[in-house]
Amino acid sequence: MSIRIILAGATGWVGRALTPAIAKTDDLQLVAGIARSHAGRDLGTALGGEPSGVPVFTSVEEALATPADVLIDYTKPGVVKANALAALKAGLHVVIGTSGLGAADYAELDTVAHEHGRGLLAAGNFSITATLLKRFTMVAARYVSDVEIIDYASASKPDAPSGTARELAEALAEVRQPATSRPIDEVVGVPATRGGAFGEGAHEVRVHALRLPSFVLGVESIFGAPDERLTIRHDAGSSAAPYVAGTLLATRKVQGWVGVRRGLDTLLD
Ligand SMILES: NC(=O)C1=CN([C@@H]2O[C@H](COP(=O)(O)OP(=O)(O)OC[C@H]3O[C@@H](n4cnc5c(N)ncnc54)[C@H](O)[C@@H]3O)[C@@H](O)[C@H]2O)C=CC1
Ligand SMILES: O=C(O)C1=N[C@H](C(=O)O)C[C@H](O)C1
Predict the structure, then answer these.
(1) Is 80 within 8 Å of 106 (Cβ atoms)?
(2) 162 CA distance to ligand 2 centroid (A)?
(3) pLDDT tens, position by position, 205-229
(4) Residue with the nearest Cα to atom 12 of ligand 1?
(5) What is the pLDDT of residues 12-61, one digit of tens each?
(6) 3-126+240-267: what CATH class?
(7) Pick the CATH number of 128-235 from 2.40.70.10, 3.40.50.2300, 3.30.420.240, 3.30.360.10
(8) How many angstroms separate the Cα of 175 from the Cα of each of 128, 133, 163, 167, 203?
(9) Ligand 1 center from residue 97 Cα (angstroms)
């Protein structure tokens, strides 16, 4: 039997790439889309193609009247948490691509997921090469104490840091060795220029977010050691294609556990 999917953000940049990819599979079935701009229409025609028989709803509450197994969310930072909570309470598993949520939000979602016996996979970045950046960064952090993150994105990106940088910083803060840089309360000048902090004390990880025309999304982990430096960097291109395979992998796997997992890397081995 196919895995029945509700896709929130179905007409967006990523949603438009996911819709045809799901249609090409034998084991996944799109049963409803959510998009404010095309509500009430058929998703196929809303995307400029043939009718698909998939209705577009304006809210998750309306879409959840359709029997389904998994909600995939690629909407907006201010919308995603309510969507995920509604889906978990309705008995669906959830895959989150939308950025904007952090450790406290995922702790709350984890509680609700456990209450309802459902799985949730959230990845700041579903591309395989961005996932490898996280993997390599976590390995480097075992050997080098000092690390900071640079987050590059377009001028119009609404959230900072990116989901990619935030997941990386929160994961690194759990494992990193103490920094040798001056504590923030000893910084003279404008301490905010030292970036936003994730984690506590010497284990915090500082993220510096740039928002400039010409960037899509890039993330850089910079490790410094006496008289040497390691930079690990990922740059996204202009299409949403890199996120499709990882999102579909998560959709196939998410029924296999209860609670929240963060990162596509948690599914890689
Ligand atoms: N985890 C990952 O690998 C990736 C994450 N993202 C993140 O995914 C999110 C979506 O990105 P894009 O597709 O570029 O956005 P987009 O702006 O192109 O599309 C957003 C979609 O959400 C819908 N939407 C917005 N507000 C809504 C509401 N209140 N109710 C119902 N539907 C609503 C819009 O109608 C549209 O279909 C962003 O947070 C982005 O950072 C983007 C690419 C990859
Ligand atoms: O907003 C985007 O465009 C993207 N956002 C994701 C994030 O916040 O990390 C990642 C993706 O590469 C593009």
Answers:
(1) no
(2) 6
(3) 999 999 999 999 999 999 999 999 9
(4) 13
(5) 999 999 999 999 999 999 999 999 888 899 999 999 999 999 999 999 99
(6) alpha beta
(7) 3.30.360.10
(8) 22, 16, 19, 13, 8
(9) 8
